[in-house]
Amino acid sequence: MQRRIFMGAAIGLAAPALARAQGAPQFTFRLHSFSSPTALDHTLHLDPWAEKVAKDSNGRIKIDVFPAMQLGGQPRDLVQQLEDGVVDMIWTVPGFTPGRFMGTEGLELPFMNTGLSATESPAAMEFINKHLVDSEYRGIKIIAVHSTDRALVHTSRKPIRRLEDFRGMKLRVAGRFIGEAVTALGGTPVGIPLGGVYEATARSQVDGFLINWAITQPFRLYEVAKFHSEPPGVGLFQGMILTLMNGRSYNRLPPDLKAVIDANSGPALAANRGAIWDTQTKPAVDAALAAGNEIIAIGAEEKARWREAVKPAYEAWIAEMTRRGRNGRAMFEDLQAITAKHGRA
C-alpha cells in the first residue's frame, strides 16, 4: 500500500515534466475581442499572434481567442473584464472606455500622426512607454498599441472642401478629443458604436463620420459615404488599437514563459501589425472609387487652416493631463517631438 502511494506521488510529480516534454498547455489564457472573426484584426493579427505564442512556448501557453464579444458584455466592458480577471487579454480601442485612456487619446489628436501605421505605431509605443505605463496601464502588460491606417472625414451628401463646410455637420467620432476637434472645426460630434455607423449614416442621423480607410471596406461604409476629404498622404489622424494582458495573468508565468510573451510584444510587434493595416488602405480607396465616390484632396493652405482651428482640442487634452497631476504642456511637446521623429509631417 505504501509503495502504491509512493508511486502515485512520483507519477504526480512527474506529470508537469511530462506535459512540458509533450508540449501540453500549462497555461491557458482567454483573449476577448469586439471585432469580427473574419476581420483582419483576427485573421492577420490576433489569431496568428496566439499561434506564434503557442509555438514559441512549445505548446506550454495556449491562448483561446474569442471574437465578437463571444464571452458576453459590450465593447465598453472589455477593460473591466480584463481588470477583474474575467479574461486574460483583450483587444480594444481607447474610446470604448471613456476617461480610461485619456493620455493615449492624445495620440489620436489631428495632425499628430505620420500617415502610416508602420511608423505611427512605434511612435505610440514610445510615447506610452515614456509617459503612461505607470498610470493608465498600471497592472496591465502591454502586448502592443498600434495605430490604424490614416483616418479622414467621410460624408454622405455634403462634401467638405473648406473649413466652413464643417458648420452644422453631425459627424460620428470614436473618442473625446477627436470630438473636441470636430467641435473646434465647427461640427457636432456624435458617439455611435462602429456597428451602428452604416445605419446611422444611411438614415441621416449623422452626416458622416471620422474613421480610417481600412475599416470602410469590411463595413461597406463607402456605400453610405460618397465624399472622402483628407489632407493627402497623412489623413487627419490615426486611431489607436490596444492589445493588453492582465498583469496578474502575466505574473503567473515562470520567467522563461514571460520571456516568450515579451518576445511577442512591444514596438516591433506594433510596427509589424501597423504594416499589415497599411496594406488595407489601397483596397479601401479602390472600393470607394469603384462605387463612384469622390476623394477630395485638402491642399496645404486649407490644411493649415484646419490645423489652426483644432488647437482648442490640443488645449483640452493638455488641460486634462494637467488636471490628472501631469505636466500636460510638456507631454504635448514630447508628443510632437516623438511623432515628428517617426515621420510626422
What does this structure look like?
This protein is of the alpha/beta class. It folds into 2 domains: 25-147 and 239-278, 3-Layer(aba) Sandwich (D-Maltodextrin-Binding Protein, domain 2), CATH 3.40.190.170; 151-237 and 292-341, 3-Layer(aba) Sandwich (D-Maltodextrin-Binding Protein, domain 2), CATH 3.40.190.170. Helices cover 46% and strands 17% of the residues. The chain has helices spanning 2-22, 40-56, 78-84, 102-105, 117-131, 176-185, 197-202, 213-216, 247-251, 255-263, 267-278, 281-290, 300-309, 311-323, 328-341, and strands at 27-33, 61-66, 89-92, 140-147, 151-155, 170-173, 188-191, 208-212, 227-230, 240-246, 294-297. Strands 7-6-8-5-9-11 form a 6-stranded mixed beta sheet, sandwiched between helices. A 5-stranded mixed beta sheet has the order 2-1-3-10-4, with helices on both faces. Strand 6, helix 6 (176-185) and strand 7 form a beta-alpha-beta unit. The N and C termini lie far apart (78 Å). The relative contact order is 0.16. The model is unreliable at 1-22 (pLDDT under 50).
Beta-strand fraction estimate: 15-25%
Mean pLDDT: 93
- Provide the CATH top-level class of the largest domain: Alpha Beta
- CATH architecture identity of the largest domain: 3-Layer(aba) Sandwich
- Strand-and-helix sequence, N→C? HEHEHEHHEEEHEHEHEEHHHHEHHH
How many strands? 11
Order of strands, main sheet, comes to 7-6-8-5-9-11
- Helix/strand structural class: alpha/beta
Per CATH, what is the topology of the largest domain?
D-Maltodextrin-Binding Protein, domain 2
Question: Measured on Cα atoms, how large is the radius of gyration?
Answer: 22 Å
User: What shape does the CA trace take?
Assistant: globular
Major beta sheet, specifics?
6 strands, mixed
Count of structural domains: 2
Keywords: Signal
Organism: Falsiroseomonas selenitidurans
Protein name: TRAP transporter substrate-binding protein
Signal peptide: 1-19
